[in-house]
From TrEMBL:
Protein family: Belongs to the binding-protein-dependent transport system permease family. FecCD subfamily.
Membrane topology value: Multi-pass membrane protein
TM helices/strands, residue ranges: 67-85, 97-117, 123-143, 155-177, 197-219, 246-273, 285-305, 312-332
InterPro entries: ABC_BtuC-like, ABC_transptr_permease_BtuC
GO BP, one annotated term: siderophore-iron import into cell
Subcellular location: Cell membrane
The protein, known as: Iron complex transport system permease protein
Length: 343
């Protein structure tokens, strides 16, 4: 198992580095990997400036590097949040959208777009999405909580109800939107890194780093929770405190990612499950390796999205859904078969 974990981490690490270099080099102004490396070395003071450094630096450091870095942060955040959610719910079919993070963020983003709110300028939509996601998760958790306890089934059903309500609000808002607002909301909801800037990267960076550092600290308690709530309590795990804390971590990671990149589905569902099949269910490795795998998936999806039909750019959410949808159906059937049915 140790060799398998090491091989997976090395494979994902190498894949991520190669994809980042390809993502930085491929585009309307193609740059060989050697020039990309030379530009990085020049900025670090390790080499002379490459030929055409002025234009090359502008393309790389103002457009492509922030986009690649944002893809890494968004993918790592979504996959890490998915691994934590599956541990909290004790179900491999769980993902952050279950508790309404994505729905709340989409509703808030749609509201500020259709209502024409511009209080924070270009930051209005990301800020609204971030706050909407956090508020929705807090509402789901508080509504599902009763008598000082929160049952998983109640939490899931509350999340489903909130998702249905946010979807209905979004549909009502779109009914009263004009063509430009409709296109803006729909494009955002399909997920994209096309509008990436360094300020967006720096905006999501603190939330992503904080969430990615906090999540692995609860790995042992999640392993105990996998034994069942009662055994976990007997072993000293404060279930409610753990669940509330990790819900906040999930909301932090997912809201930040959704706020800057829109809705990119299935990364939080598919990546942790694939990693679990390879290295086992232990959260000590599952959480960080899932984050690494999520970064690889989103950077690869972004590279495909902007090159496969260039100059037209495809939404990343559509690509991840094309892969995640069939995988989800396979996962449902496999889980159902292994458990002998749902009833």
């Amino acid at each position: 198992m140790r060799a398998r974990r090491l091989a997976l981490v090395l494979g994902l690490g190498i894949a991520l580095v190669l994809l980042c270099l390809l993502g930085a080099g491929i585009g309307a102004f193609p740059s060989p990997v050697a020039d990309v490396l030379a530009s990085i070395a020049h900025r670090l003071g390790l080499a002379e400036a490459p030929t055409g450094a002025g234009y090359l630096d502008a393309v790389l450091w103002q457009i492509r590097f922030p986009r690649v870095l944002l893809g890494v942060l968004v993918g790592a955040s979504l996959a890490c949040a998915g691994a934590v959610m599956q541990g909290v719910f004790g179900n491999p079919l769980a993902e952050p959208a279950v508790v309404g993070v994505s729905g709340g963020a989409a509703m808030a983003a749609s509201a500020v777009t259709v209502l024409g709110v511009t209080a924070l300028g270009a930051w209005t939509l990301p800020a609204a999405a971030f706050i909407g996601g956090l508020v929705t998760v807090a509402a789901v958790y508080l509504v599902a909580r009763s008598g000082g306890r929160t049952e998983v089934v109640t939490l899931v059903l509350t999340g489903i109800a909130v998702n249905a309500a946010t979807g209905a609000v979004i549909n009502l808002l779109l009914t009263y939107s004009n063509d430009a607002q409709l296109r803006s909301v729909v494009f955002w909801m399909m997920g994209s890194l096309a509008q990436t800037t360094w300020p967006k990267v720096f905006a999501v960076l603190p939330c992503a780093i904080l969430g990615l550092l906090l999540a692995p600290l609860f790995a042992r308690q999640l392993d105990l929770l996998a034994l069942g709530e009662r055994p976990a309590r007997h072993l000293g795990v404060h279930i409610e405190r753990l669940r509330g804390t990790l819900m906040f971590v999930v909301a932090l990671l997912t809201s930040a990612a959704v706020a800057v990149a829109g809705m990119i589905g299935f990364v939080g569902l598919v990546v942790p499950h694939v990693v679990r099949m390879v290295i086992g269910p232990g959260h000590r490795f599952l959480i960080p390796v899932s984050a690494l795998g999520g970064a690889v998936v989103v950077v690869a999806a972004d590279l495909v999205a902007r090159t496969v039909m260039a100059p037209v750019e495809l939404p990343i959410g559509a690509l991840t859904a094309l892969v995640g949808g069939p995988f989800f159906f396979w996962l449902l059937r496999r889980t159902r078969a292994s458990q002998g049915g749902w009833a």
